[in-house]
Amino acid sequence: MRRVLIALVWSASLWGIGPIAEAQRPADGLAPLAFRVQLDTTKGAIVIEAHRDWAPLGADRFYALVTSGSFDDTRFFRVVKGQWAQFGINGDPAVAKRWRDRPIADDPPAGHSVVRGAVAFAFAVPNGRTSQVYISLRDNSYQDAQGFVPFGRVVSGLDVADALNSEYGENSGGGIRAGRQEPMFDGGNAYLDREYPRLDHIIRARVLP
């Protein structure tokens, strides 16, 4: 009996389901070790390959956002040509607030830089990542030192990301640190569609089999 108990404890430790690991597990649940997500956008398809070993908490959150449908019918509200394309604020203010109120801890660097095609979470303060994600459209590796840790990369459709409408630049919301996003959180898609009607958007996001 004692041998069985030891084996069970060893197995729990190995698979990360012991008391300590359970306390460290994100509320979002665990994503697959690697998975691909297709963003069907108004410009075409973008496929992102995510890796838990790059940024486990970031990958878990991204997986939760995709599988919950939170990215569906959302706008690319911050597109600066040749720099980045940002998305992730749900079009329903109530849903957007729920995610905004659930920040995740920072992931430590794992040796992957914010180069062209990298995908990472935007944030304003340490341990402040929520739902906003951006695709790096150039080598932005200077951001590595600022704590931005990619959880994946675009493996197909980077040309689609390059073609997303950038006419509004930072004016249609800007980054979190600029402090001008409240109208998006308060008004959702209705606000963005009224003020910035030509923004491209995600029609649907789904995990590929």
What would the keywords be for this entry?
alpha+beta; 209 residues
Summarize this, please?
The protein is of the alpha+beta class and 209 residues long. 28% of the residues lie in helices and 22% in strands.
Order of helices and strands: HHEEHEEEHEEEHHE
What is the makeup of the main sheet? 9 strands, antiparallel
Mean pLDDT: 89
Overall geometry comes to globular
Number of H- or I-type helical stretches: 6
- Strand tally is 9
Indicate the low-confidence ranges by residue numbers.
1-26
Helix content: 25-40%
The fraction of residues in strands falls at 15-25%
Strand order of the largest sheet: 3-9-1-2-8-6-7-5-4
The rounded Rg comes to 18 Å
Distance between the termini: 41 Å
- Output the structural class: alpha+beta
Commentary on this structure:
By secondary structure, the chain is of the alpha+beta class. It is built from six helices and nine strands. It has a nine-stranded antiparallel β-sheet. Helix 4 (93-100) runs antiparallel to helix 6 (182-195). Residues 1-26 have low confidence and may be disordered.
Explain the layout of strands and helices.
Elements: H1 2-14, H2 19-24, E1 34-41, E2 44-51, H3 56-67, E3 74-75, E4 78-80, E5 84-87, H4 93-100, E6 118-121, E7 133-136, E8 152-156, H5 158-163, H6 182-195, E9 201-207
Antiparallel strand pairs: 1-2, 1-9, 2-8, 3-9, 4-5, 5-7, 6-7, 6-8
